[in-house]
């Protein structure tokens, strides 16, 4: 079964007779970094998991972007934004990245 969502396709109307748009609004609880138990000693950024703080300290905080798009030179400290960039901006090209650290 395939379900497709179309805003306003539920047949509901506003009080003035116009169609009502039924869009969902995502809310995200934002907690301050000071409330998170693991803090980066360099920049003060907070993390809920120790492994995330360790990754941040070892690979991101104070380091230059390590991964680069082979087609346009976009750089990032993590691989996933570069992979997503290649799939979106260079759809005909092979998906791989350069690791500048090697």
Automatic annotation (TrEMBL):
Keywords attached to this entry: Metal-binding, Zinc, Zinc-finger
Species whose genome carries this gene: Lasius platythorax
Keyword Zinc-finger among UniProt keywords: yes
C2H2-type domain location: 38-65, 67-95
Region (Disordered): 1-31
GO molecular-function terms, A-Z: zinc ion binding
Name the UniProt record assigns to this protein: C2H2-type domain-containing protein
Compositionally biased region (Basic residues): 20-29
Biased composition (Basic and acidic residues): 7-19
């Amino acid at each position: 079964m395939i379900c497709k969502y179309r805003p306003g396709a539920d047949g509901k109307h506003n009080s003035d007779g116009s169609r009502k748009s039924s869009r969902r609004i995502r809310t995200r609880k934002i907690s301050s970094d000071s409330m998170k138990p693991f803090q980066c000693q360099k920049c003060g950024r907070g993390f809920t998991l120790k492994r995330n703080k360790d990754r941040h300290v070892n690979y991101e905080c104070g380091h230059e972007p390590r991964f680069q798009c082979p087609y346009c030179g976009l750089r990032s400290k993590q691989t996933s934004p570069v992979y997503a960039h290649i799939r979106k901006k260079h759809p005909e090209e092979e998906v791989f990245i350069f690791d500048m650290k090697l």
